[in-house]
Structure formats: structure tokens, C-alpha cells
């Protein structure tokens, strides 16, 4: 099942349970101008269950966006992939708290969690707290986070090719968010 939720327009579920062999591809979008707190829990309760979860937030003013995700691998043989990207400008504050929990005896779990953030101004801030809590052996789990600014060398190159500064910046932001936004098309 594929689902796309636009925060501020759609009701986002707070708890999802996946049974044996079930799969879910979910995309969460927090558009510019929306302040929100998202709390999502996903329980993988049946062998072979899989989750493909992605989200993007775009905050260029004074928005406050908080994303809290808990994914629980409660049985063996489940898979989860998470990718969250945030763009923060102005005086926006964005935070991501993600927990991947692997229960005792949930062997053969595959779980990956990534959070990447792009700062557009000195006044914006992002916090990222990816976490793994693993109580089983024979698993493949990873998590990571990055935060950075637009690449000035890429901006210079684009400007030297006649692309106006604002357009070049927007092209970089669009490219950064493309892996998430393309899921909604």
C-alpha cells in the first residue's frame, strides 16, 4: 500500500501495525508555512512485514516542525527503510527524533534510518536524534544524520552559466528534496 500525507491538509495516523507479509510505503510532507508536531509509531508485528517511510519538511519562515518516529521490529524477518529530509531557513526550528527498536529474538531484521537537513540561513536550526535500540543478534541496522548548507562552489558554477542566484539556490533545494518529492508524483 502506498500513501502520501500532506501535513496541514491530511490526518496523519499516529499508529500503524503491519502483519505477516504486509508492506507499506508512506510519504509525509510538511509544506512551507506549516508548523507541526508529528508523532508516528509503526509496529512490524508479522514476519516478512516491510516499511518504506520517507518525509520532507520545508520551513523558510518561523515555522516549528517536530517529527517523532518510532519503528518497532517485534518479530523476525522484517525490513524498514526511513529517509527524512528537512530544509530550514529564516528562523525556523526543525527537529527529528527517530527510534528503531529491534525486539529480543527478532533476528534477520533489516533496518536503515537516515535524516538529512539543509540550512538556508544562520537563524535557522535543526536537531537530529536518530537512535537504534537492538536486543537481537543477526541483524542489519544503521542510522545516520547530516546537516549542512548549500554548496557555494555549485552556486558559483551555476551562476557562471548565467543562472540567477535565487534560481540556482532553488535548484539546489529542489535537488536535495527530489528523492522524497518524486515519491508523491
Describe the structure.
By secondary structure, the protein is mainly β. The chain has one domain (2-150). The protein is built from 2 helices and 11 strands; from the N terminus they run βββββββββββαα. A 6-stranded parallel β-sheet has the order 1-3-5-7-9-11, covered by helices on one side. A 5-stranded parallel β-sheet has the order 2-4-6-8-10, with no helix packed on it. The longest helix has 17 residues, at 165-181. It starts with a strand and ends with a helix.
Number of domains: 1
* Model regions low in confidence, pLDDT < 50 over at least 5 residues: none
Structure class: mainly beta
For the report, how would you describe the main beta sheet?
6 strands, parallel
Assess the beta-strand content as a share of residues.
over 45%
**Which percent range fits the helix content?**
10-25%
Mean pLDDT: 96
| Integer-rounded radius of gyration | 18 Å
Q: From N to C, what is the helix and strand string?
A: EEEEEEEEEEEHH
Instruction: Write out the strand line-up for the largest beta sheet, numbering strands in chain order.
Output: 1-3-5-7-9-11
Secondary-structure topology with pairs:
Blueprint: E1 2-6, E2 15-18, E3 23-30, E4 36-44, E5 50-59, E6 64-73, E7 79-88, E8 93-102, E9 110-119, E10 125-134, E11 140-149, H1 152-160, H2 165-181
Parallel strand pairs: 1-3, 2-4, 3-5, 4-6, 5-7, 6-8, 7-9, 8-10, 9-11
Helix pairs in contact: 1-2
Task: Describe the structure in brief.
14% of the residues lie in helices and 52% in strands. The chain has 185 residues and is mainly beta.
